[in-house]
Amino acid sequence: MPTYMLIMRATEAALAASKEQDFEAIINAMGAYNESMMEAGVMVGGDGLSDPSEGFVVDFSTPDKVVTDGPYGEVHELFNGFWLISVADRDEAIEWARRCPMGPGTKLEVRRVTDESDFADFADNEFIQKEAGWREELERTHEG
Predict the structure, then answer these.
(1) Beta-ladder partners of 92
(2) Residue 4, CB-side half-sphere exposure with 13 Å CA sphere
(3) How far apart are CA 108 and CA 20, in angstroms?
(4) Is-contact 102 82, C-beta < 8 A?
């Protein structure tokens, strides 16, 4: 079953507008959305992100890999959080994305998470072969 990432994006104006809303109402709406995905058995994971001013950006445009503090500068939409859902297909991912209780000025970008089938042409690559073992190791590490 494919996994999709629902990426919350918002403009700075939308973020400012959300700070004027009843925060408990936002928590309740998002909680109900999360609960519906849990009850349907499609939610794999997800988290919100802190204020963009706490973040930093690593720019790979130069050999020195410049790190800058704060929001993303020239980007007009901010990445606020994400969900991972495992659903039958793209249409079901769209259906769950449409149910998300987000407000004006916000968007959800939905992207399929790649899996081993996306790298079938490179099946003999050392790191592709290690990938399955790493996934199992990560699952064990986070279970205990």
Answers:
(1) none
(2) 20
(3) 21
(4) no
Question: pLDDT for 92-141, tens place per residue?
Answer: 999 999 999 988 888 889 999 988 888 889 889 888 888 878 888 888 88
Alpha carbon 82 to chain centroid, angstroms: 3
Locus of tokens 């794999």 = 44
**DSSP 3-state assignment of 43?**
strand
Q: How far apart are CA 97 and CA 110, in angstroms?
A: 8
What pLDDT band is residue 14 in, cutting at 50, 70 and 90?
confident
Distance CA 115, CA 95 (A): 22
* pLDDT of the residue at 29: 92
Q: According to DSSP H, which parts of the chain are helical?
A: 12-18, 23-40, 90-99, 126-143
pTM for this predicted structure = 0.79
